Amino acid sequence: MSAMEKNVQDLIHKLEQTALKTEFSGVISLFEDTGSLYNKAFGYRDVKNKLPNTTNTRFGIASGTKVFTALGIGKLIDQGVISLGTTIREIDQKYVTFIDEYATIQHLLTHTSGIYDYYDEEIHQDVDNFFVEIPWCELETPSDYYPLFKNKVMKFHPGERFSYSNGGYVFLGMLIEKLSGMLYRNFVQEHVLKAADMPNSGFYAFNDLPEDTAIGYLEDRKTTNIYHLPIRGGGDGGMYTTTEDLCSFWHKLFSNKILSRELTAIYLNTHWTFNDTDGYGCGIYKRIDNSMFSIVGGDAGVGFYSSYLVQEQLTINILSNITDGENAIRDIVIDFFSNG
Question: Any transmembrane segments, and where (predicted)?
């Protein structure tokens, strides 16, 4: 057994012990590019009916959706419809009264646009108790969110700073619908998920979930999240996926099968640095030395973390159907690959 193999086995042991200790509900997986090292389900996808999670269960990934929105925009860039430097006002003049004239697609992708955020995580931190003026059941597409943004004041000038923006990614979803003439979810399904070979992923309505899809639960592990999130995801969150589909996503992304080689490199470049080691690309967190890339998400009834370690060609996925359910497992992964 090589040193790397022993390290991975040690990590798996820690993950499994923590999962059992914390009564983790979800799936934990480690995949090499050549196959599965570990893929195990815990807990229930449906608590009331005692239906267990399986390794094929679909889970909501909350803000993990953002990278797929970013890739949808990337498809439009590769098609020559827009560029990273295209301003929001160039696409639709109805935004002229409340969007800074210099705010661009790149600003939205990198959370540096400064536009109003309907779900500003610098203000709202309790995901189990967040609501908006529009009933969740009426939010089916990104365009349905438009009244939440109209005539709201910018937070800051574009490019001035990084401020994680759910609203910015809903806006990107709106722009995909405007530019493509398709519903956001259909465009991402057709142009991104197919290219990433993710057949068991998509945007499903809460009242019409496919079989073997996890119901989300709040921290009490009894109350479902059906009244706490939009009925269908759009732009900033709400996609469902599986561990195997995520493995395929990372492989296709780094093989330049989703976007062109040139645009993939731009997306994976560091566009904002948080500290000496960590930064942000376009819809994706990363180590500045390009050793590790991550997508994360947390909502009412959703806990999600997925990373790809480039040198090791290793994918690590943590999908949970409990609010913050991934935290303890994720912390072990981050500590392991930060400190060895």
Answer: none
Q: Name beta bridge partners: 46.
A: 51
56-74 exposure pattern, b = at least 16 Cβ within 10 A, e = fewer: ebbbbbbbbbbbbbbbbbb
Residue 276 token pair = 């000496």
Give the DSSP letter string of 198-246: -TT-B---GGGPPTTBPPPB-TTSSSBSTTTS-SS--SSS--EE-HHHH
In the numeric block, which tokens belong to residue 272? 């904002």
Q: Is 272 exposed, middle or buried (0-12, 13-18, 19+ CB in 10 A)?
A: middle
Q: What is the pLDDT of residues 131-180, one digit of tens each?
A: 677 777 888 999 998 888 887 889 999 999 999 999 999 999 999 999 99
CB half-sphere exposure, 269, CA atoms < 13 A: 10
Beta carbons within 8 Å of 212's beta carbon, 6+ residues apart: 45, 54, 56, 57, 58
Question: Which tokens go with 128?
Answer: 């189990």
Dist CA 281 CA 253 (whole Å): 14
- Residue 43's nearest CA partner among 61, 20, 12, 62 is 20
Q: How far apart are CA 174 and CA 75, in angstroms?
A: 15
Kind and range of the H or E run holding 20? helix 3-21
Asked if pLDDT for residue 1 goes beyond 50, the answer is no
Condensed to tens digits (0 to 9), the pLDDT of residues 66-111 reads: 999 999 999 999 999 999 999 999 998 887 678 899 999 999 999 9
| Residues in the chain, total | 340
CA 151 to chain centre: 27
- What pLDDT does 129 receive? 65
Paired sense of beta strands 26-32 and 59-60, if any: unpaired
Residue ranges and CATH numbers for the domains of the chain are 3-339 (3.40.710.10)
Cα dihedral sign, 256-259-264-267: negative
Report the SS3 class of residue 251.
Answer: helix
Instruction: For residue 97, give the amino acid letter.
Output: T
Name the nearest CA neighbour of 309 among 263, 340, 271, 266.
340
Kind plus residue range of the DSSP H or E element containing 337:
helix 327-339
**pTM assigned to the model:** 0.94
